[in-house]
Amino acid sequence: MGRRPGTVNLYKLACAALDARPGRRVIVTDQDNFPSDRYVVEGIAAQRGAELRLLATDINEGLAPDAVRGAVDQDTALVSLSHVAYRSGALADMAAITKIAHEAGALMLWDLSHSVGAVPVELDACDADLAVGCTYKYLNAGPGAPAFLYVCARLTEVLRQPIWGWFSQRDQFAMGPRYDPAAGIAKFVTGTPPILGTAAVEEGARLLLEAGIGALRAKSVRLTSYLINLADAWLVPLGCTLGTPRQAARRGGHVTFCHPRAEQIVAQLAAVNVLTDYRTPDRFRLGLSPLTTRFTDVWSAVGAARDIIERDG
Questions:
Q1: What is the C-alpha to C-alpha distance for residues 250 and 53, in angstroms, rounded to an integer?
Q2: Distance from first CA to last CA of the chain, Å, rounded?
Q3: Sheet with 241-242, side-by-side order of all strands
Q4: What are the start-end ranges of the H helices in 60-103?
């Protein structure tokens, strides 16, 4: 449920981007993008008779800018990618890839669901056009929390979003007979937001701002580095391999390990109150929220994984 609002926002911005690039019929994304992201642009391409180009991705190391450069051309309308890869945590070079998309005349749409609250996101500095994201991960707003979208200032009056709703009506309570979109970013809202979820987002954002993204990123790097060091000593000798970039500057806030029994390991960890994620084909993922995760939590989680693998092979 928490992902659904972000999926709707992705649909809105992708459609708006295609409308803003008439005559162009190519959408570019990558094979390891989050499934909903791929499905949304696949559906839009099918509806509009457009071409969807799927880039090959190293699922451990992430997407290289040169792969994007080789896929875009004068027919490309939109490039849609994740800033931090959902499976591995690999961190994309936002500035370099956005520049490549712009050089081809395409618009750039970033998914920040695994970025916001874990790594600095410099949309303006990178000249990004569009972005979407969720708040239930590192903003700690919980399942069902609202999603968000971003449209750069130069496009807010250019793009027309496809899902018209009463919350984006200029005079909302006039209940007028025709749709008259509000000015600026307000035109991209659709329906009534969930109030309880919004309250949770407000508190999560407040805590993030109080801590500061610089301090959060620094702690995140220390947490993930500590996790990898422990795993090198305890898990790698038991058959695990690192499925995340080893260099701190190349990864976000979660770390993934490969093991033939990954799915069973996730279930067994849950039984001892260590909550991880299974990710195909053979990996388990540990998400470390810097606002709430302690180094002792990392020690306990890796120790529990070691004990399970040693016991069950």
A1: 25
A2: 35
A3: 241-242, 254-258, 283-287, 277-279
A4: 65-69, 94-103
- Rounded Cα distance, 76 and 100, in Å: 11
- Across 153-276, the runs of DSSP E, i.e. the strands, are 241-242, 254-258
pLDDT of residue 167 exceeding 70:
yes
Radius of gyration of the chain (CA): 20
Torsion of CA 114, 118, 124, 126, to 10 degrees: -70
What gap in Å lies between CA 120 and CA 8, rounded to an integer? Answer: 24
Tens of pLDDT, residue by residue over 204-245, are 899 999 999 999 999 999 999 999 999 999 999 999 999 999
Q: Which two tokens stand for residue 186?
A: 């307000």
**Per-residue model confidence as pLDDT tens digits over 1-34:** 334 568 999 999 999 999 999 999 999 999 999 9
DSSP 102-170: HHTT-EEEEE-TTTTTTS---TTTTT--EEEEESSSTT---TT--EEEEE-GGGTTT---S---GGGBT
Size (the chain), residues: 313
Taking residues 124-130, what's their average pLDDT? 97
Q: Which residues are designated catalytic? A: 34, 111, 136-137, 285
